[in-house]
Amino acid sequence: MKYSRAALLSLAGPAAAQVQGWGQCGGQGYSGETACVSGFVCQYSNQWYSQCVPGTAATTAAPPPPTTTTAAVPSSTRTSASPGATGFAKTDGLQFNIDGETGYFAGTNSYWISFLTNNADVDKTLDELARAGHKILRIWGFNDVTSPPGSGTVYFQHLSAGGSTINTGPNGLQRLDYVVSSAEKRGIKLIINFVNNWSDYGGIPAYVAAFGGTQKTWYTNSAAQAQYRAYVEAVVSRYAGSAAVFAWELANEPRCNGCETGVLTRWAAETSAYVKSLDPAHLVTLGDEGFGLAGDGSYPYQFAEGVDFAANLAIDTLDFATFHLYPSHWGTSYDWGNAWIQAHGRACAAAGKPCLFEEYGSETDHCGIESKWQATALATEGVAADLFWQLGTTLSTGQTHNDGFTIYTGSSDWTCLVTNHIANIASR
């Protein structure tokens, strides 16, 4: 979903004569200090990153620095898993299997939970979802900035042609760490997204600002893609062993307006294969809106945004498909949405993969309109789960963002679209 909201930022620490413990001391494009403070040694992790870890041995040699730099994941947070790992979500024919149960699942989206700085707010939010019976929560695993951010707020990556840095500190990926650990305790499964098509929280426009080109050329820009993959590696390596991860998602609503559809399809194939090489045990999906599909010829069915739903669905390293639904933004009617859902279900059934109805929303009569979409999805072969946009609740700082599509806990719309929907799933 595209929305207007200022990105949350955080200030990177000042440079020092020696690198502090757990700081970066080498890697591709790194140009800073290489000597660690007393009691720490610079240890090579991969081509992107060397880090000061406890020890007194001689520094492990790192590869020569090329163009971009990333801060690494502290070794204590790295996890790994084999393809046969138990407790991980998986596909089962045209459905999903979560914690050993195959069926249809309900969930929602929360872009903001990854940026909360109060652990109690994270726990409260996930407790509400668990009590409601939601199993899947889609979150932003990105927060990109292009200039030194202000103090005390959250960012995950500072993008710069002169050297990009991944923030693994308390106001960086450690905030995402807490969301994952809290979800693990409550049985909530997370879809973690790596980049935004839109400028909210940086996204592809932030990469373009740092590395040049345009949003169209981002998919083939070698410098931008190198940094994107470095970021993917940093995130995936932190949580590859966590059963809280439902799936890795390549991008939020990727488009390449005016491009040949092969541009995005090739990128999706190569990138999903890369993610699978890092973590073969978890599911991987694209995160697209479902554009480019045989239908009534209206805008969403067309290929002008460079998306070919069927071609992307055929990629071996994408485990399931996604599609979104926003008639008020697409120039279609709310009733039109039911056929949109069914068309994607048919495509997924033909391909033998599940469809995730990943985002949907109306700006009026939430219950009357969206409950019909839910019923259609539940009755459509090939559609395996639905996640409404977006979750709303009250935190220590007040009510969360209302973009006109928000469904708040405790409201009559929540009863209709969550409580009643989950009861309908259970009785199916």
Strand order of the largest sheet: 14-13-12-8-7-17-16-15
Alpha-carbon distance between the two ends: 29 Å
Average pLDDT taken over every residue? 87
Note the overall shape. globular
In terms of structural class, how would the helical and strand content be classed?
alpha/beta
* Proportion of residues in β-strands: 15-25%
The low-confidence runs, each spanning 5 or more residues with pLDDT under 50, are 3-16, 45-49, 57-80
Indicate the radius of gyration in whole angstroms.
Answer: 21 Å
Helix-strand layout with pairing:
Elements: E1 24-26, E2 40-46, E3 49-54, E4 90-92, E5 95-98, E6 101-103, E7 105-110, H1 119-132, E8 136-140, E9 144-145, E10 157-158, E11 165-166, H2 173-186, E12 189-193, H3 203-211, H4 222-239, E13 245-249, H5 261-278, E14 283-285, H6 309-313, E15 321-325, H7 327-330, H8 336-351, E16 355-360, H9 366-379, E17 383-388, E18 391-392, E19 394-395, E20 398-399, E21 407-408, H10 412-427
Parallel strand pairs: 7-8, 7-17, 8-12, 9-10, 12-13, 13-14, 15-16, 16-17, 18-21
Antiparallel strand pairs: 1-3, 2-3, 4-5, 5-6, 10-11, 19-20
Helix pairs in contact: 1-2, 4-5, 8-9, 9-10
Please outline what is shown here:
The chain has ten helices and 21 strands.
Would you kindly provide a written description of the structure presented here, covering whatever features stand out?
The protein is an alpha/beta fold. It is 30% helix and 19% strand. The relative contact order is 0.13. Residues 3-16, 45-49 and 57-80 have low confidence and may be disordered.
